[in-house]
Amino acid sequence: MQVNFGLFMLVSIATVSCGQHVEKIIRNDFDGPHADGSYRWALQTEGGIFHEQLGSLQSTAAEEPSLLVEGQYQYTAPDGQVINVLYKADKNGFHAEGDHIPTPPPIPPAIQRALDYLATLPPPTDYQ
């Protein structure tokens, strides 16, 4: 859980410090943390930086509780492009989505056929 909290703090600090000058905060809402571990906050500056986040503890009977964080942030890049990132951080890591984030090229058809074929084979049983 400390890794997730550290990730949360790193993203928060990086988002707030994206601007090159100090901007007036026009929205600063905080709610929590509550007894169940949940919280919600939102921050907005006069220069158009916006960041909001929700957090809660997720638990199952078999595992130790872990922090689930979901949020988004937005700012204007130096080239004028509005950057908007939706993200989720959980026990499996940090997952971000945004139009500006590069995506991998498609898998070539021959490689995809080979992967599909390998997926049909039974798993090996001789682990020597």
TrEMBL record:
Family annotation (Pfam families): Chitin_bind_4
GO annotation, cellular component aspect: chitin-based extracellular matrix
TM region positions: none
Cited PANTHER family: CUTICLE PROTEIN (PTHR10380), CUTICULAR PROTEIN 47EG-RELATED (PTHR10380:SF241)
UniProt signal peptide: 1-19
A GO term, aspect molecular function: structural constituent of chitin-based larval cuticle
Domain of life (superkingdom): Eukaryota
Record protein name field: (apollo) hypothetical protein
Keywords of the record: Cuticle, Signal
